[in-house]
Every structure is written in structure tokens, then in C-alpha cells.
Design goal:
Blueprint lengths: L1 H34 L11 E9 L5 E6 L1 H72 L10
Antiparallel strand pairs: 1-2
Length: 149
């Protein structure tokens, strides 16, 4: 339980630090790529539902705007963060755990094979001893106390 809490704390700290990197990638790379088509800042993209949209003389917004550029920016940030976390943390850890499990199963398989082999060898030794005692008992005369199994 304690190990899981430590893992979770490390993940939170790394995630918080990683957010700045992802935000920089979105603003520095994705934003300019989108800016080749339109504007560099995704937050500028919006649609007006109720006209006229803008700001009146008193500084109050007029109309109803949908800020779909902000949603797109947040979605891109989430997708990039999820992809990086998956490909740099989750996938390598899953592969590592699969290798460890395969090694453990291989060791158990070898141990099981060795146990079966030892059992077979012990059976062969027993059969050989029984056969030797049977051969000694035929030509040795009356049965003694050792031959009475």
C-alpha cells in the first residue's frame, strides 16, 4: 500500500511539471501550424450565436459567443499529454512487467520440469532396486526378513 502511495505522488509531481511542457508544445508548435491556416492563437477562434457579438461602449460583451478555439486548445493539450504519458510511461512499464512475468513463468516451468525429472529418476531407481532384490531372492534360498515387502 505504501509503495502505491509513493508511486501516485511521483506521478502527480511529474504530471504537474509535464503540463508546462505540453502547453509549450501546443503554443509553440501546434499553434503556429494552425496559424498557417488562420491565426496563431487558438483562443481567438469563436462563433457568435446571437448577433451582434462584440463589446459595447461600456465594455460589456454583447451577443453570445462560443469559444470553440479554447476547447480545441484544451483537447489538443489533453491528447498530447495522454499520448506522451502512454508511450513514455505506461507502455514501457507494461512491457517490463510482461518480461518479468515471462521470466517468472519460465523459472517455474524449469523447476516443474526438474521436479518431474527427479521423480522419474527416483522411480527408476526404485524399480531397479526391486528388480535386483527379486533376482537375489530367486537364487539365494529362503526369504529373509529384508526380502518381505
Amino acid at each position: 500500500m505504501r509503495g502505491n502511495v509513493v508511486d501516485l505522488a511521483v506521478a502527480v509531481v511529474i504530471g504537474a511539471a509535464f503540463t508546462n511542457i505540453v502547453n509549450s508544445i501546443v503554443k509553440g508548435i501546434i499553434g503556429p501550424l494552425v496559424g498557417a491556416i488562420g491565426t496563431k492563437n487558438l483562443d481567438v477562434y469563436k462563433s457568435c450565436i446571437k448577433n451582434p457579438c462584440g463589446i459595447d461602449a461600456t465594455g460589456q460583451p454583447t451577443g453570445v459567443e462560443i469559444l470553440w478555439g479554447s476547447v480545441l486548445n484544451a483537447a489538443l493539450t489533453f491528447v498530447i499529454t495522454a499520448a506522451v504519458v502512454y508511450f513514455l510511461m505506461v507502455l514501457p512499464m507494461a512491457k517490463y512487467l510482461a518480461k518479468v512475468e515471462a521470466r517468472r513463468k519460465a523459472r517455474e516451468g524449469v523447476q516443474e520440469t526438474m521436479e518431474i525429472t527427479e521423480l522419474e529418476v527416483l522411480k527408476e531407481i526404485r524399480d531397479t532396486l526391486v528388480a535386483q532384490r527379486g533376482a537375489q531372492g530367486v537364487g539365494a534360498g529362503p526369504a529373509g526378513p529384508r526380502d518381505g515387502f
